[in-house]
Amino acid sequence: METPAFRPDETDFAGAEHLDPAFVAGFDRKQGSPDPAEDIAALRDHGVGARSTVVDLGAGTGQFALAAARAFGAVVAVDVSPAMQDHLERAAAARGLTNVRPVRAGFLSYEHRGAPVDAVHTRHALHQLPDVWKAVALQRIAELLRPGGLLLLTDLVYDCSPAEAEPLFRQWVAGAAAVNAADGYTAADYAEHLRTEFSTFRWLLEPMLDRAGFEVLRSEYRGRVFARYLCRRVGGASPGSG
């Protein structure tokens, strides 16, 4: 199907650095090499198992996807960045993982083939879309999932009112731990995120989840900026209708 002219090219939102092989080579170090064990355990605790299929949207270098491949039946690792996909493919081959399928696509362009999946995972990627396209992306995620399927969403989401936003942003930027950008996220990185990325408010995101047909099973916030949602797709009808 031809891509509509009005649909954004998600590589335009990805940030030039995520398309740069040199940056990608140091990406895990900058991210702090987050341990995916907690995410895998959360999915396992809700019935995702050794025969399940999981789609990882915004898979990056495969921090989650590579670990998930050892826990679940099949993992589809979706990312718009060719550099990220190349890194992930090499890492999967080096580990002898044959059940990871890299796909170059994004939230708005991934076209799933086959039966509805058991779970969708996405970490620090949805914020790259403006809110109207976040809502579309969440609708598309719901359509990927079987009824009762899970969405595990981790991202930067602001748990505050508009009046509280600037004080919260000042506090967040001032609290950046890294001095060297290669070692983590600096105050300049956080400030750039606030200027150029599309993180949204909690009170906007949660109605989007509801409208897409998700029940929030658990939500956790750290520092009123970092959010983690475990959601279940409810019902068997097309979500978002009505």
Keywords:
Rossmann fold; 242 residues; alpha/beta; globular; 21% strand
Set out the fold topology.
Blueprint: H1 21-25, H2 27-31, H3 37-45, E1 53-57, H4 63-68, E2 74-79, H5 82-94, E3 100-104, E4 117-123, H6 131-144, E5 145-156, H7 162-174, H8 187-196, H9 202-212, E6 214-222, E7 226-233
Helix pairs in contact: 6-9, 7-8
Q: How far do the termini sit from each other?
A: 26 Å
- Largest sheet, strands/sense/barrel: 7 strands, mixed
Please state the overall shape, judged from the principal axes of the Cα atoms.
Answer: globular
Give the topology string: H per helix, E per strand: HHHEHEHEEHEHHHEE
Q: Tell me, what is the CATH class?
A: Alpha Beta
Count helical runs: 9
Low-confidence stretches: 237-242
Mean pLDDT: 93
CATH architecture: 3-Layer(aba) Sandwich
Spatial strand arrangement across the major sheet: 3-2-1-4-5-7-6
Quick one: CATH superfamily? Answer: Vaccinia Virus protein VP39
Q: Helix proportion of residues, in percent?
A: 25-40%
What is the strand tally?
7
CATH domain topology = Rossmann fold
Beta-strand portion reads: 15-25%
Domain Methyltransferase: 54-149
Organism: Streptomyces lonarensis
GO molecular function, one term: methyltransferase activity
GO biological process, one term: methylation
Commentary on this structure:
InterPro entries: Methyltransf_25 (IPR041698), SAM-dependent_MTases_sf (IPR029063). It comes from Streptomyces lonarensis. One of its GO terms (molecular function) is methyltransferase activity. This is Class I SAM-dependent methyltransferase. Keywords: Methyltransferase, Transferase. The protein is an alpha/beta fold. The protein has one domain: Vaccinia Virus protein VP39 (Rossmann fold, 3-Layer(aba) Sandwich). About 35% of the residues lie in helices and about 20% in strands. Strands 3-2-1-4-5-7-6 form a 7-stranded mixed beta sheet, with helices on both faces. α6 packs parallel to α9. The longest helix is centred in the middle third of the chain and has 14 residues, at about 130-145.
